[in-house]
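Hi C.,

You asked whether I'd gotten around to modeling the 378-residue construct. I have! Everything is below, sequence then structure, no commentary in between.
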Amino acid sequence: MDIKKLKQEVILYSKQIGIDKIGFTTADPFSELKNRLIRQQELNYQSGFEEPDIEKRVTPALLMEEPRSIISIAIAYPSKMKIRVESRKGERRGIFCRASWGTDYHTVLRDRLKRLEEFLLEKAPGVRLKSMVDTGELSDRAVAQRAGIGWSGKNCAIITPEFGSYVYLGEMITSIPFEPDLPMEDQCGSCTACLDACPTGALVQGGQINAQSCIGFLTQTKGFVPDEFRDKIGNRVYGCDSCQTACPANKGKDYHFHPEIEPDPDIVKPLLKPILKISNREFKEKFGNLAGSWRGKKPIQRNAIIALAHFKDKTAVPDLVDVLKSDSRPVMRGTAAWALGKIGGENALTALELAKEKETDQEVQVEIEKGLSFFVKE
């Protein structure tokens, strides 16, 4: 088998099936990453969504027998909507981050990797392959950086010269000894735009993030959002793009190569009040195709309540009172109580005073007191 020729054929085929960038690296352990992951664990900076076994995250040989190389792929996604919808008084909207626009990127990348697998199996029968996207053991960013897709930015994203950091990443371990590409030199230099823009200071320093205080992570949790972060979430119902939009390398980067990841404005910038009463079926029909739906409707609904408080939307008071009175979930009732206090007004105060008398859940009672405390400040 002419491996050099096969590599060129793989590169050519990747362009034909909608892969925007491809790179190759060895299947050697990611030794430098291991030290960083251990440190993250010691500091409790991990999100908890990652593969818990650090050895698996850094050792391809634990994932496939005798790996010889890893192929990294990138697909560019849009940074702007072609059609915009506005958030108006009485019709306030939330926002999903750009990485959750269009069809779930896991689905899109798995499709491309599957086609690449079929191509390699046809060209090299008997080849061993293992593909993964995001939820796999390996770090997509570590693989992409070593494969020359881009450099690892201070915002903890891979930044490509062509598409900025607006790229989805996936990889494939192979038993073929492809010649590795050269890693890209860091181009962030002394720039700290992303660190300065992070609303919560989650970017502790260049290349290090405390996931526990990252809005992108917080919007995916299911419990109460800690008090110190609620006002900083704004109208984000899923994810956060602040460190990307602030990055100079992303200026002017907006690519619309793939119809399946084009955003539907009414879905990725949804009206907030209807979310509060959405059924499981309606949620699945409207948002089920998005990457941002993976945790179900509960975090999205809670975030929508926080967003309505952010807008101080008085037209939402009746909806929030309904949640406080009738929702079976303490997190929703409690967050609604806090939001009513933030929005204010006679109806909100009356609802909180009534709820204080009837509520039996201790955590919700704490949130009711928080809501009432805003009136004392007034």
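If it helps when you're writing up: Strands lie at 21-26, 69-76, 95-96, 129-132, 151-152, 158-159, 167-174, 203-205, 208-209, 236-238.

Thanks,
B.
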